[in-house]
Every structure is written in C-alpha cells, then in structure tokens.
Write a structure and sequence with these properties.
homododecamer, alpha/beta, Rossmann fold, five-stranded parallel β-sheet, 6 helices, 5 strands, 41% helix, globular
C-alpha cells in the first residue's frame, strides 16, 4: 500500500504568488500542491497537503500524523523561528520530518536564521523555491526506503 | 466613497478597563471603539474595529485586509514582541499599517521594547493611551491623502 | 462552598504517556486529571482540568478564570517560553497562578530555562513529574487559606 | 491665555530638504515650522520652534522650558541615541515631552533604534515624516487638556 | 525504620523574620524548623534541620548526608547562585536533593535567577514562603516512595 | 553538450566510512562519488568529483570552476564554519553553488551551526547523509534548467 | 602659596535642589559651592568652582587646568557615561582628577554604571550626596601632600 | 556615648605591605588599623577593626553588627566581586555600610569592576590607598550625624 | 582654480605635542598644519585647517563645507567613537570625507576601535602619526582627480 | 636540603573514588597522596599534601606557603571557577603555582571552562587523571631547577 | 642600495577586475602590480609583488621577509579576518607591515570589520581602491625614512 | 617493538628562538626536537617530530597518524584557535592526542584562550615552555601504558 507523506505549510504560505515574489517566487500554493501530488504519484507516495495560519492547528496535525502518515514535510513559515510547540509536537509524534523553506533563510534577517524545527527534523532543504518541495519528497522516499 | 481603516487589537486588549489600569488606563475597548468610530466619521473614514486573542486570526484579518481595507491600525498587544507571522502578513498584504501602543513600551520590560511589527509598519505611536488611536486615525488620513 | 482551582495544560500535554517518557514519565494526562480530582476532593477543592494546543484559547481560559475560579495551576508547556500573551492574561486576571512543569526545566535546553509565566506566577514547582500537580494543589490550598 | 509648546530640533535637522530626502523627505525645516505654527493656531497653542546642533544648548532650552512652556516636542536627531544629558534635562524640567522622528527609526541601523529620550518622554511618534509634528502637536493638546 | 530528610539552610537564613520581611516573610527559621518537624512526624519522616553561613560547612553536610540521610532539602540562599562546590557535593553524594526558595527568584534581580543547585536537584519549589518547605517534604516523601 | 557539475569535498571527507560513522554514515567517499556519477549520468550531467584538505586548493578549484563548470556542489566540511576565503571565491566565481552536509549541522555544536558558505550559496541541503548529494545534483539540474 | 583645586560640574547640575531631590538631595549647587569654599579655606586650598552644560567647555576647562590648577574634582554628570573627550582631556592635562557623584551610580540604570572618567581618575567617591565633595577635597589635600 | 564603626577587611588584606605593593601600597593592615583608630579618636568614634579570609565569618560579623555597631566600613577584597551572601547580610543587617577599595578597581581586570557590595552600600570610595579608610570614617561620621 | 580641502581636528588635538607623546607623537597641531599646507601647495590644493573641542561646531563646519570645500579630511578624535551627529553631518553634506587617526586605533581600548565616521567616510588611514595627514591629502587629490 | 612542594586539593576532592568515577576515575585522594609522596621521593622533593572544602582555609594555606614552601600544585576543584580570593592569594604569595585538574575541563560545562587560577598559575595540566599530579610534580622539579 | 618592500596579496585577489567590480573596482592585480612597481621606482624602492590563496604560503613569505625585505604591505583578503597565523608571522618577523584593503571594510558585513592583521600592523589604509597601494608605498617610504 | 609518538608543530613554531622570546623562550625548534628524541629514548618511545605552516598538511599528518602512530602530541600554534579541520582530523583518526602550548595561553589575548583542539584532546599542558613537551611525552607514555 502506498505510504503517505503529510506536507504542512505554515502562516502566510496561502499568500504565495502575490506575496513578495522576489523572495518567494511567482508560484501559488496550489501550484506547489499540484507539483507535489504529481511527483508523489511518480514516486508512489500519497500526498496529504495542507496549510494553516494557526500554530495550534499545525501542532495537532503533526500530533495526529504520528498515527496516519509515514513522514512529514514541514514548511512552518514564520513559526519556524518562534514555535517550540511545533518542535515538541515533532518530538512527540516520532515521525520523520523534513524541513523546507522556499528562500535561503541564511541570507535573510538574523531572526529568520534560527529554527526550532531544525532541532528535531531529519534534515533541511532551503533556497530552491518550489523545487525544494520536490527535493523533500525525494528525500522522504529515500528515508522511507522506497527508492 | 469613504475609505476603510481596519483597526485590529491583539490579545488581552478585551480586558482593558480592569486590566492594570495604572499602565493601560481606565477606558474599555468599547470606549476606544466609540472614540475611533466617532473620529472616523469626523475624518470621513469608515472604521472596522476588531479584537482577537488568536495569532492566526489576526494574521488572517491582515491577509484579507489587503483586499478590502485601505489602511490598518494595529495594536498587536503581546504578539508585537513575538509574532513574525504578523510581520509576514503585513508584508504580504501590501497594506499601510500604523503600529499603536497604549503605554510607552520603551519604559517597560526589555522584552516589550522589541517589536516585529515595527519592521513593516509605516510608523509607530505609543504612550498616549486611548488618545493614540485618534492620532493613528489622523495619521491614516494623512497617508490616504484625505487630509 | 468549595473553592475552584483551574488546572490548565498547554500544547502537547495531550500526548503524555507516549511522548518522550524518559523525560515526561509514563502517566497520561487522564491519569494526572484523576490524580488531581482525587486530591482536590481530599482538600475540599473543586478541580476544573483542561488542555489546549492553542495559545489564544489558553489566554481566554485564564481571562475568564478571573471571574469563576479562585486560583489556577498552569503547565503551559512550550508556551511557557514564548508566550507573553499568557503572561499578560495572568496579570490581567488578577488570579493567583502556580506554575508547574513535569521535568526539571533547568536541566534541559537553554530555551526551556526561560519562563514568561514565572514573571507573574506566585511560585514554581518543577521536576517532580505528575506528583508536581499534587504539590501545586496543596500550594493552592495553602494560598486560598484552606489549610 | 494660550499655552506654549516648545518644539526643539537637534543636529542636522537644519539640513532638511537637501539631506538624504529618500529618508527625511523634501520639506525644509522652515516648511515644518510653518506647518506647526499654522496647526498650533488651529489648536489655540503658541509654538516656539528652534533648532540647534549643540547638545549643551538643547539641554539648556529644556532646562529653561520648565519655567516658560507647558509642553515640549523633541526631535533630538542624532542626540536621541547618545545624549544622557538630554534625558536628564527632561527629567529635571518636569515638562511633558513628546518624542518625534521623521523616519521610522526601527527600520534603520541598530544604533538608531535605541533612544535615551524614550526613557523620559510621555510617548513616541515616528515614521510619518513632517506629518508627525502635526500629530505631536495634537498629542500635546490632548495632554494639556485643551482638546 | 523512619527515613531521614536532611534540611539545609544557607547564609543569612538565620536572619529570617527580621530580614526584609516583605520578601522573606515574618516567620523565623525556628518557626520553619517546627513546621518541618511537625509535618515530618505526620509523614513518618525524621527531619534533621540545620543552618550555616559557611559554604564549606554546607558542602561537608551534603557529603556526609550521602551516608546517613535518605534525601535532602536545600535552601542554599545566596550560595544557590555562586557555589559550584555545592553542585559538586550534591553530584558526589548521590542523594536526591530538592531545591527550595522562599521567594519567587524569577521575579528578582537577574543574578538571583541563575542556580547551580538546579543543575543537580531533582526539582525546584519556589515562591511559597515557609509553606514551600512543607511542599518539599511532601515531595521528598513522594520520591522516597512513602506516599 | 552535457553540462558539468563540480562536486567539491573539504577536509576530512576522505576519512568517510571509518570517521565517526554514527554521525557521517558508513559510506566511503568513493561510494559517494559513484552515487554521484551514476545519478549524473541519469540526469545527463557530467560530474567532476574532488576532495582536498587544503583551503587554498578548494579556493582555486572554485575560482577555476567559474571558467569550466556550470554549477558546483560544495561540502566544505570544517571550512564551512571558518573560511571567508571560500565565501569570497564563490562570490568571485559567479557560479551557482549548492551547499551540502551529511549530518544535520543544526543538531551539533554551536560552532558547526554557522556557515560562511550559506551567505553565497543558492541553497542548503543537510541531514540526509550520502543521499543529500543526490538531492543536490537534482537541485543543480533544476537550476541549470535541464529538468 | 595656596594650591588650587578646580571643581567642575557637568550638565544639569545647575538644576540641583529642584531636580529629582529624592535622588540628588535638596541642596542647590550654590550650597555645594559654599560648602567647598568653606572647607577649602579650612584645608588651606583655593577652590575654583564651575558648572557647564557643554561638553566642549568642560574639555577646555580641564585642558587649561593643566596650567593653572594643582588638582581637579570632577562631577561630569551625564557626560561621565558618554564622553571619551573628557577622558582624553584628563589624560592630556596630566592633572590628578577625583571623580565625584552625588548618588550611588551603581544602584541606578545600567548605562549610569559605566564611567569613562574612572579610566583616568585617581579615585572615585559616590553616594554621599553633597558631603562627597567635602570628602573629595580632603582626598585632594591628601594627594597634594598638604595633609 | 561614642558610636561604634565596624571596619571589616576581607581575604588577603592581611597580606598588605608585601602583597603587590605597586597596586596596594606599602602600608600594612596594622598601619591602616592605627590610622583608623587615631582618626576615630579625633572624630569621637569607636573603631572595631577586623580581618577575615572566610566569607562565612564576614557574613556573621555583619549580621551581628546590626546589633552592636552604628555603621560599617567594608573592604571585602575579592569577595566584593563574588559574594551575594555578603550583599544579603548587609541588607539583612539594616546597617549603613560604606564600601572601600585601596586601588581604583575601574582601572583593573573586568571581573574586579563588578561589585555586589555596591548594590547595598550607601556609597563607594576607591583609589585613594590607605587614605580611603580615613575618608570612609569621615563619611561614616557624616552619616551618623556627628559632624 | 585650486580645489579646497577642509581638514578638521576634533577634541584634544590642540594638546598635541605634550599630550601622551608615546601615543600621539611629538609634533604639535601647528606642525601638522604646516605639513598639510606645504604638501597642499605641492599638490595644488588649498588647505583649510581647523580644530574644535565642540561637537556642534564640528557638525556645522561639515554642514557648511558642503557648500565651500571639495573634500574633507577628518580626525574627529574622541568624537569618532561617540558622535552620530558627525556621521549624519557627513551624510547630509554629500562631501567626500577621509578619516584619519594618528595612532593605530585597533591596538587601543575596545571603545576606540568603533568609529561612526567610518560608516560614511570614503576610506580610513590610521597609525602613521602626522604622516597620515600627508597620505590623506594625497588620497584627496586622487579622489578629486587631480592626480 | 630537600625543597618542599605544597599540594592543595579543593572541595569535594575528598570524595574521589566514589564521586562520579566516569569523570574523576577510581583512585581515592589517599591513592593520589601516596602517588605524589612516592614520586616526590624519587625527585628529591618533600611533599605536603592537603585537602579542604573551605575557601578561606585554602586561601590561608597559600598565604602561608609563601613562607614555607618552594612551589605549590593546586587542584582547586570548584573554586577554580569562582574564587578570586584564591587568585589573589597566589599573587600575594609570590609562589610558583601549577594548576592541575583530573578531567579535561574544556570538554565539560561552560562554567567549568573558566579558571581564575590560570590567571596567576605558571601553567596548567588537565585531563590526565591522577597521572596529572605526577606530571605537575615533574613540572615543579623543572621550575625549581632540580632537574 | 634600494630598499625592498614586499607586497603580499591574499586569497581571491587574483580574481580582481572580474570579481564584484562594484566593490573591488575594475583594475586587475596586474594593473596594481604595475602601479606599485612604477611608483616604487619613483620612490627609489624595489617592489616584490606576490599573491597566494594559501594561508601557509603567505605565512612563510612573511617569515622569510624578515630576512630579505625592509617593510611589507599586506592585503590579506579574507585571511585578514580569520588568520591568527598571519598575525603571529608578522610578530615573529619583526618587519614593519602596512595593512591595505581596497574597499572600506567598515561599511561591509560585521565579520569583515574585525582584523587580526591590525593587531600587529603599523597602520591601516582602506577604502581607496588600487590607489590605496600607492598610499601604502608612500607610507612605507615614510617609515623607512626615505622621504 | 617501540611505540611511536607523533609530535606535530603548527605555524610559526619554526621561528622559535628568535620569535618573541619573552613569550616563547630562547630554545629553537631543533632544541625541542632533540629534547624530545632524547627523552623518548629514555622512555622507550620512538619520536616522529614535524612542523608545518600549512593547515591542510597538519590535517593530513593527523589523518595518516591513525595508521602509523600510537599517540600524538600537538602544538597547533595559531591553528589551535581557528581550525575546526584539525579538531575533525583528531576525531576521525581515533588517536589519543595531547595538546601542548609553550606559553600559558590563559594569560594572553582572549582569542588565544579558546582552543578547538581541547575539544578532542585527552588533556592539555601549557605554560611550561619547552619543558611542556617533556611532560607531554611522559603523559603519552602513561596513556600508552608503558609506565
């Protein structure tokens, strides 16, 4: 049976396309969802793609993922830098989580260069725009041993 | 047609009046709403006044404001100092935002002297109690060219 | 009439039992709720026990507690270290609040050693696992003058 | 009898208009003086508008204001960030002082984000260009109870 | 046979009652000793209660406790913040130690918010005045499995 | 004609396989070279794979790459954290560079969490072991528009 | 012939008496001058007592003192904490300088606890109010060998 | 009846005369005791002069002084920079304490420029060698109103 | 027509020759003025050489230089490290400014190693004593295209 | 006549053998004393071996050593990191002191990586367990010119 | 006989002309070498001009220069900020070294504003592009007494 | 068969004897090599003594040592403080490494007080000049169980 990868997007990622395109690119979140679903099909992975602006909701999606998903890809947006609750949820879930960012956060403001997610994620992929989600799915496939 | 100014209030501002009045004054949030609506009428501005204790809800109000409002006044309360998500929402919305605080935050604890909102706001008004909302509406009128 | 103690649990405490038991112990949150209700009965205190992963909801529970409870015990989990909104809610509520942690946070990562709750709480109890809730209830009884 | 508001401008503000207009705008200090005098007339306030590049002179103007003025508006320019002597003068004068900056200093170099004036000022208004002086006069009127 | 709990008090705790009562309360150290002995009787624990102003003496009491006591409660007073020797003694003794403070040290000067004792103690109880010793004895009973 | 990707490995990467395998895995550098060459063939990319323990040599390889390669993948090992010369070489070469690390450097010592390479790299991939090189080659293909 | 001691007072010391008397006391600068002149007579020292709000003027008084005075007592007020120019003037003058403060600066804001003057002064006397000037004159007599 | 001033000297002050005379001068502690006794006689003050290398003993001398002395002069030597216990003893004793140092500690190593004693002392006198004890006695006389 | 170079010297530079000659050399400011005038003649540059101990006066000389000089050489002495007002004046004047120091400030106290002037100056020359003024004049000639 | 080397051991070193043997080894302090006495015999050095948990006592042993010993070896245990009094005693004694630690303190907690002793010791030997005392004795012999 | 000045250029300076010309200018290193040789001829100085990307080679050139050159000019490029080995080589060589940078490093990233070279260099010249080498040669002539 | 100890010396140690002898002593590196070879003979240890100014070469010597030597003594000179590559090489080699410094680095500049080598070395010996190499060889013999 196909394994499931939960792809979670944090605050303001629903604004992609119009939001500061010189930093985040011109693709919308729907474009990225399609990119992920298509590449998931190619890899034989079921993709469950979601977005929330609410820290608590993201926490609960990760908590529940421990039961129903095999791995998660997390672009926590601004919560990357401020949410210890998300870090704890990852550690509580026992799920392998891959951290993704559209921009290269290490070339931005100092407060964007610290990540609580990194302390629990398997690995980090950043700076490749929407293409980074494709790389993350490939990494998930690698971790899940399907490749 | 009258321009609209969204006035957003963050966590615990619903407690005004009873909450530490030596810092925040004796006026309730309803008093401030009335003050704003009245002065908005005077300036020919429509006022949309809201409060939320939820970071995600505030983020979404700002995201949506990009469509329906002409400017925003934001007293983000405690989220001023901790919410990069609000900062990102302001930058994503493209809306002119005026930051307001009832107290002079620079005479308070160090953690209240740092503001993520300031990094994206047009300007800051603080220390004038409820009167600061009046000044902010005047500033909005100035920015919107109606004065 | 019996006094009421509100016991609030923050994010990921609903995961207790399975979540990193070497740090947080093997008892579930339901076990702790029973422990508290039983010991509250013994002390003649009514216990109102809740959990939320949502910062805004916790803020509002504390705001409302100002009206209906006599004291609160707060294990704010990850929000301990990041939520100025909770600190403000405690100060706005005027309620005596006792801070509890299952683990000894001073033996963990540096970011877990800073607490915004401590700035407004009557006192702190940490490192005693589920037993710490019992101690906190006893402390509440002491503060409420029932002992 | 009309109350008097002393408006003091610090170093390099005599260069306005030609000085880095992308930061400070195209209005000269004379333009701002006229704006203030006119709006003061409207509010029934006498305006005493001055500029100095000399820290000691600014200190003495504030010391003396304690005797002859009812409130002061202070744009201390670069001395905002370096002059404890000005802070002391404000505290010694007992005068209500409103801090103004043309630019939003919180979006500039770190050394421009610290203000000694803020430690004694009633409140701060920054980022609104010359319009900020108008807001400050309005705030002064509010403080002096004339509005 | 009754288990023994060593209760150690550090410098200046012999001054309790007269020493800054707004911080430390009006009870003398003799009052607290009685409170502890009485509650120890209730719990079936033998209490050995001491005070010293001398760091070396406290170190040796803890070293020796490893042989004759079952647990210790330590209010190290000012040495809490400066004595690595006490930390080492606790680690060398192998004894379960409970850290107590009368005041909530997290609302005091920054240098009182750092504790070397916390790095080796089972847990911390602070802010409950003399009542905190009672809680600590209860915690000791819990740890010793007598409750 | 096939595009060329230069893959550079810094100090001690020649020790892979035997070097702290719990951190760096059991694959040797020759294994990784083969993995890269094979996957490069699949992608239609020529791979030029090298290792040096010498900072100056790595600098010159990057300088020269500006002439003969289309992109570079750089695992600078320890020089990641100390070599401004490598950063300058990347900026001087004008080459798109992808930063790779075998381990998740954000879960290691603080000095391994700072990277000069990140300041000039297109993006970062870390924590996926040898598989990260495969992801980097895929990213290079994406950047070079061959995919 | 009687030796001369120059006593220099910095910014806002002309406000003494009315200025925050709970910190600086109720004596005016004229009172202190009289106290110094009288005690100087007693010690056989000529006192030259001055005040300026201007950093440059204070610098020049110290420069010139190198020629005409035997020692100096300096209460540099706010310039204590910000004026490297005064430090340099002391070092250039070769004059023995005694630093005085009315208040105990080590119990005040952090920025008042740093002194550039201390780096060149013979010694420091602070916290004794106007009486500190008397002590400083006595110290000067000691240094000048007249006692 | 003559008032009593306790003069306490901390660790290594018994070594004066031979100890680094270029910093501490050539006078022995016995010389300083005589200087103090003589000048005390002149002022009508009884001097109780002691030295200890033991932090706990100094703490107890201050605790007891609260009963038998009218003021204290404290040169805590190295404990100045490390002993919170001495600070607490001063605050517990309620005694006016004058801090003295032979050398100008602000021209020495950074760790000698921080003083816990200063947080509770009436004032500080440093840099005048043995003469500083004379000034401190004079200051004590001033505080005790005998002059 | 000959171009003009304004050479400004800050506080205490009027003391050269006698002032700490082991740091600043034995030449007086008059010697340096002559050196500059002579070398200016050689280069075909008019030299306007001044000194002030007053920050405000230096600010105004730079403001005015924007009108009458072609370049400036600035040895701001102690104000180098403390004067944001001078930095602003340079930026407001639009004048090319060359920063000069007699000593190598990077081998001195930490507070002398920070320069506000450097943030706006074309370049920096330090450590060459009076000869540095000659180098600065040569640099000015280079910038003004006269060489 | 044989020269004497004083070997001083600080707090908790009397616990060696049972105290955290994975850090400090299984040898008791008596074992180390024997090792030192034997090797001293071999080198022709008289060994005076002591231990104290009391800072003041260690200070006095060093003070007195200045009279009776030729060199000292000091393992100050926890006081290494907190005792400026010991540093001062070493400087006052004029004795060559060799600092020893059983463990490699640079691989332990940050607060164990700072040493006041190092600022006055001839040299440091750490990380070699009990064998380090042997090396220190050899070093003492070297310094005393007996080898 | 003509004196020799060694001019050493560090990593990536061989890339000048094409490397970020908006920072480093359009002149190649060969252009600068010619400029130096020509101006050296004018001054009667022999110029030995070299470049290396290798820290060790630069170290050795400086070590050897102690024997064969009279002064050195060093633009250490990125090694300026990271190489203590170069600092040590300068100190070991006893050679007068002049530090040069093309750009004004004080207007660049913080890590480029720290220089190990400055701690041993006679002086620093930066911000004047290739012209700075000319100034440095002139400074060398001054130091060597040939001018 | 005799065991081999590799003794590696880093940059500028080839300059010993002439290089700052007040810090490093008058012995040349050849003197130290002879001292080591002789004492190695005495201990039955083969000594392989080398020096390099090149970080990469030192890295490779350590890498290779893992195969052919039994222990290493490393005086990494300036690379002690900057080379993570050396730290990694030690960890990769699995070799017991003893860190040596001629001077007591804890009495020198702050940047010389941090060592990357210490994080992997068995122990540290510093401050004993050339004699420290002898102590290190003795320590190696102890570790290798030959003594």
């Amino acid at each position: 049976m196909a394994k499931t990868v939960l792809i979670l997007n944090g605050p303001n990622l629903n604004m992609l396309g119009s939001r500061e395109p010189e930093i985040y690119g011109h693709e919308t979140l729907a474009d990225i969802e399609k990119l992920c679903t298509d590449f998931g099909d190619e890899l034989g992975l079921k993709v469950d793609f979601r977005q929330s602006n609410n820290e608590g909701e993201l926490v609960e999606w990760i908590q529940n993922a421990g039961g129903g998903a095999d791995a998660a890809i997390l672009n926590a947006g601004a919560y990357t830098h401020t949410s210890i609750a998300l870090l704890d949820a990852i550690q509580a879930s026992g799920l392998p989580v891959i951290e993704v960012h559209l921009s290269n956060i290490f070339q931005r403001e100092p407060f964007r260069q610290e990540s609580y997610i990194s302390k629990a994620a398997v690995g980090v992929i950043c700076g490749f725009g929407a293409y980074g989600y494709r790389l993350a799915l490939d990494a998930a496939a690698g971790i899940l041993g399907d490749k």
